[in-house]
Amino acid sequence: MEFIHGTTLVHLKMRCWSGEKKASRDSDIRLGTDGKMPPQKLLDLGRKKIFPPKALDPLLSKRKSAERACLAEGTRFMGGFAVRDEAIDDVVAKLETVKAGFESALQQFLNDFDRNKEDWIAENEEYAHIMRDQVPDRETVASAFKFEFKLYKMQPLEGFEPDEAEIADQILHEVGLSCREMSDRLLERKRAIGGKTLCKQLDPLVTKLDTLSFGNGRILRVLGEFRALRSSIPAERIDQDHPVFGRVLTFLTMCSDDKKLERIVSGEFSVTKLIAGLQSGNAQPQVSPSSTYPTTASAMGAYF
To answer: Is the pLDDT at 23 greater than 90, yes or no?
Structure first.
């Protein structure tokens, strides 16, 4: 199977101390001396926050950075990320950078541990009698953190190979999530965007579809439309009233919806038809309105 033989499985292993404890007893939940419930910043969904959450944010963000590095070139697979062999060196380099950042952030966290602990207790003095005894010592907390990754080559048994259609659907779903994020950024943008900049934002999606297509017809169809969209973007500045803005936003919205994506795969919806429809002032047929995004651009409303 080409997909298996052409990819490397990246398995991330990252642990972070949560700074929380389960509120398992009535005395845990009713922390105050008068029996009243503590504020949400200390107790949420049955978990006691015994350490300031913001102090952990720099470490927790590293997991997202590592996942983004893997997803830029690969797809989720078997609890890890399948990355095409040609891209694995770049992904490993990015993960090494993230790992170095994690270790640096961990050292800073441990340096500030006692101060953050005392500040949190002082900030919540009413509940100090419970919190102080439940925060582990610095050495115990340090052992609860870990960041590493392993690489594997897979050899499936004959007759038990992964389903190529399921893998293709996973890749298209991940691309759809990226399309949603990109469309949100475009809608929130207050200034015009250069055509070259807009193309650069599309390039990672084109690259991912290209490197993970492995001849799959569904992925290749969507890839072709991404390339057509990219080639139709002029180098000029594009604001929300520019027809290209509506074209790009419409296409991204189609890709971010699994049902609408099938219209691209089937050929019912295409960039060529979209451009022709905009030029003629007619909406492309059978593309139902969507309540997902506000129609702020005049050129896009008829296509949702």
So the answer is: no
Q: Is the pLDDT of residue 297 over 50?
A: no
Burial of 215 (0-12, 13-18, 19+ CB in 10 A): exposed
Q: Which element (helix H / strand E) includes 10?
A: strand 7-15
Q: What is the mean pLDDT of the chain?
A: 84
Contacts of 259 (CB under 8 A, 6+ apart): none
**Rounded Cα gap, residues 213 and 223, in angstroms:** 8
Q: Given this model, what pLDDT does residue 224 score?
A: 96
Give one DSSP letter per residue of 111-157, joined into a string: HTHHHHHHHHHHHTGGGHHHHHHHSPPHHHHHTT-EEEEEEE---PP
Q: How far is CA 83 from CA 63, 66, 70, 166, 279, in A?
A: 17, 13, 7, 16, 40
* Cα distance between residue 167 and residue 184, in whole Å: 26
13 neighbors 148 (Cβ within 8 angstroms): yes
User: 299 pLDDT band (50/70/90 cuts)?
Assistant: very low
This prediction's pTM: 0.74
Q: Token pair of 13, please?
A: 């292993």
The owner of tokens 């890890």 is: 80
Determine the Cα–Cα distance for residues 270 and 263; give it in Å rounded to an integer: 8
Q: Are 13 and 146 in contact (CB under 8 A)?
A: yes
Closest CA to 192 of 46, 297, 38: 297
pLDDT tens, 46-64? 577 889 999 999 999 999 9
| Beta pairing partners, 14 | 147
User: 232-291 pLDDT, tens per residue?
Assistant: 999 999 999 999 999 999 999 999 999 999 999 999 999 998 888 766 555 443 333 343
Cβ distance 212 to 81 under 8 Å? no
